[in-house]
Amino acid sequence: MKNYTNQQEVLLMTATGFASRQYSEKDSTGYSNKQPAIDILKEACWNGLIKEMLPELFQVNEEMEATLFLWQVREANQFVALELGEYPTGVNKYWSIDPYRFMEVQQFN
Asked: What would the 3-class secondary structure string for the chain be?
């Protein structure tokens, strides 16, 4: 019997209202600086607010009772890529939704 791991990729588009909204910090340091919206979004993801922003990603499936952890946040031109999983694994470029990854393995005629 094979062991399957639960792994997800999420692309958050940066030119949207979702990316530019204000996020309340869990551990506020008391100072406010003018950071770009993309940096605030990445920081919110790392601080654990991704569970409040997108709770449907963390709903436990009855068949696969796995806890997802955020392992990587990468910034691209038009999106922020999140890699979630039970433990850190490499992403299969063939099955990836990240265009910078899957275009490397596309076969052109």
From this structure: CCCCCCEEEEEEECCCHHHHCCCCCCCCCCCCCCCCHHHHHHHHHHCCCHHHHCHHHHCCCCCCCCCCEEEEEEECCCEEEEEEECCCCCCCCCCCCCHHHHCCCCCCC
Buried/exposed code over 72-88 (b: 16+ C-beta within 10 A; e: otherwise): ebeeeeebbbbbbbeee
How many angstroms separate the first and last alpha carbons of the chain?
38
Tens of pLDDT, residues 66-102: 678 888 898 888 889 998 888 787 777 777 888 888 7
What average pLDDT does this structure show over 23-46? 71
Q: What is the pLDDT of residue 57?
A: 76
